[in-house]
Every structure is written in structure tokens, then in C-alpha cells.
Design a protein that fits this description.
The complex is a heterodimer.
Chain A lengths: L1 H14 L10 H7 L3 H24 L9 H23 L1 H7 L10 H9 L6 H31 L1 E2 L4 H4 L8 E2 L8 H4 L1 H30 L5 H4 L1
Antiparallel strand pairs in A: 1-2
Chain B lengths: L1 H48 L13 E4 L11 E8 L2 E14 L2 E10 L4 E8 L51 H29 L1 H4 L2
Antiparallel strand pairs in B: 1-2, 2-3, 3-4, 4-5
Classes of the chains: A mainly alpha, B alpha+beta.
Amino acid sequence: MSADYKKISQDGLWTNNVALMQLLGLCPLLAVTGTFINGLGLGLATLLTLVLSNASVSAIRHWVRPEIRIPVFVLIIASIVTIIEMMMHAWFAGLYNILGIFIPLIVTNCSIIARAESFAAKNPILPSIIDGFMMGAGFLLVLILLGGLRELIGFGTLFDYSHLMFGESARDWTLSFADGYRGFLLAVLPPGAFIGLGLLIAGKNYIELRKTKTQAVKLQPVSDNVSAA
Amino acid sequence: MNRQVLITALILTLFAVIGGGLVSYTQQSTAAQIQANDKMSLMLSLNSLLPADRYDNDLTNSTLSLPAHPLLGSKKPSTAFFATKNKQPVAFIFNAIAPNGYNGKIYLLVGVYADGQIAGVRVVKHKETPGLGDGIDEKRSQWILKFDRHSLTSLSESQWKVKRDGGYFDQFTGATITPRAVVKAVHNTLLYYQQHKAELIQAATNPTVTKE
């Protein structure tokens, strides 16, 4: 069983990563990743949605007839997202104002219904929760990586606006790397998001390629080592 | 067959009811907090225009409804806040719109002291180009603070423009339209205040008259 969870985790975080491999949920991903904190905020909201929706879909999987399964999933996801939206508005008002429309739009993030349909509807509750968590975490990681990258290149800072999420005491968490850096506009504008995501995907593919290569090398006789490398 | 359909419909209804119930419960339990947040952020932005020690009234609830006026940039009635100290009007804060930004409207809060001096200007909402036009945002540059303390008398009509147009205010590298729009909107707000000063002061002195 534990090996199973390991596979679920690996799938969510790396092998089958929502953003880098399945290429789902790109609209919010590209739109909000102007800063690290924006990415973190949307990532956590999406993660929470995935966990809750996977848990509820899995819990009701025996009662719902196949014909109405999609409307029921949509209902569940929409309710969860609306509730999360209101809670964010109540407790993280600043962040809510920045993320704005992208919180309710989590409903349309295909990865959520995809996980409900392809995993939670067929598996018990605990694995479903773990799957939701790991898929969400994989998405979150890409969001903060891309957000951090764009913020760093675009504004020369990291963790700016932390106080929107962690309260006033976080106001001076901002790391400024170059005083007087005027910023690199491209990174902040939409093309920067596409280029950044492209680079991340390329990076992932590169690492995978190296992994398969080193595995291939291991399998081959010693004399072939030079040509393989 | 009929029974099947009925059960299916019932299940779907059940989920709709549960979902709707949960949402409305959350809405009820967060409504107060959300309202408090909105008020808080309004208070913060108003206080950044007008230091808290300059007035002693409940600013967020001291509003005047102003009919639409071209100088305020809106085709709809707008809300203005008035600050008083010892019942004497101290300042007004207008919701002004610069209709001709580079990417549409720029929403401003313009604070004007009773004597016609600018208390401060802040951008509430804009869609200007990041890195070029967003210098009007106080978080990005100090430009917007340049308005403080200026009035129709401290700068002449021709000085209420960006430098490229022969005026007093800087434009940004690569972005003239945005600051030009903001300068114009602030100037218009001052003109509006000049034209309506008497009625505004009157309304702020006897606030009960204006409350609907």
C-alpha cells in the first residue's frame, strides 16, 4: 500500500505534473504568476480545492449514477470553490483583491475535474485525498517557481507583498537583489509567462532525458560508456 | 424506468441543495468579516490621503452623493467623502476617473483640502502597462506624491500638464499618455471643487440635510 502512495506522490509532483506534463490549468497559471506570493496564493487555493473535491467525490462514488456523475462533480467543485473564495475574501482580503477573478475561475481548472473523474471516482477516500494533495502540490510548485522567477527577473525582488498573505509583520520579507534595478518588462508581461513555462517544461524534459540516459549507460557494457556519454 | 429517472433527479437535487446550503452558510458567516475588510481597506486608502489627526469624523460613513459631472470623468453619480474637525469641513475626497488612460479608465482618489490644496492622490484601479505606465501607482514610484499641496493657484493653468506639454509634471520614459491622463483628471477635480466649493462646504457642514 505504501508503495502505492509513493507512486501517487511521484505522479503528482513530477511524472504526471498538472502544469508541466498534463498542461492543465494554464490560464490561471500564466495569468497570476507575476509574483511569488500570487503564485503561492492561487496554488494553495487550488490545492485545497483538489483535496476537498477529491475527498467528496470519492466519498460519494458509490451513490452517484454514471449518467449524472459529471453534473454532480461540477456541483461539488463549484460549491467548494465558492466557499474557498468567500473565506479568502474574509481572511486574505489583500490577496483576494489581487487574484480577483482567478479564484472563482479555479472551477474551470480542468485538472480538478480531471482528477475527480480519473482518480477519485474510482478510488477510496484516503488515496484520493493524497492524490489531490500531491497533484495540487505539483501545481503549487510550478506556480511558485514561475512566480518567483518572473518576479526576480521582472522586478528584481522576491517575496514582495508577503504581507497580503502573512499579515503586516511580513512586510519586510521582501528580498531586493539589485538596488536601482529598473526591471525587465518582458518577464512581467504575458509573453514572459509563456517563455518561463516553456523553460520549466524544457528543464523537466532535460532532467528526464538525462535520467534515461544514465539508466541506459548503466545497462550497457562498460566499453560503450564513452559513446553514450 | 420512470423510477430510475426519478431517483437520479432526486440525487442531483440533493447535491444541489447540500451545495447551495453550504455556500449560503459560508456566505452568512463571512459576510460581516468581508464587509469589515472592505471598510478597513477603504479606511486605509483614505488615511493615506488624509492623516488621521486632521479630522475627527467617521470618514467612511461621511459621504456625499455627487451627480455625474464631466470634470469628475464619470457618467454616473459618484461618491465623495468629507472630513470635518470640530464640525468644520477640512477636506473632501473625490472618486475621480481619468477616462483617457493608455488602457482605459484610471480610477483615482483625489483628496482636496477645503482651501483648494491637494491633500493627496492615489490610484485605485488601472490597467496601464506594467513597467511603463504603472509608475502612477504609489507602490511603483513616488510620482503620484508630486501633486501634494498643489492647487489651482500654486500652478498656473498651463503648468497643470506633463513636461512634454510644457507643464510641471514629469512623464515616464516610454509612457506619456498615462501621466497626462492622471494630471488632467486631478486638475479637473480641482476645477470641479472650485466650481462647487460653496455647496460642498454647505453639505459637509450640515450633513443631515444630504443624507437620504
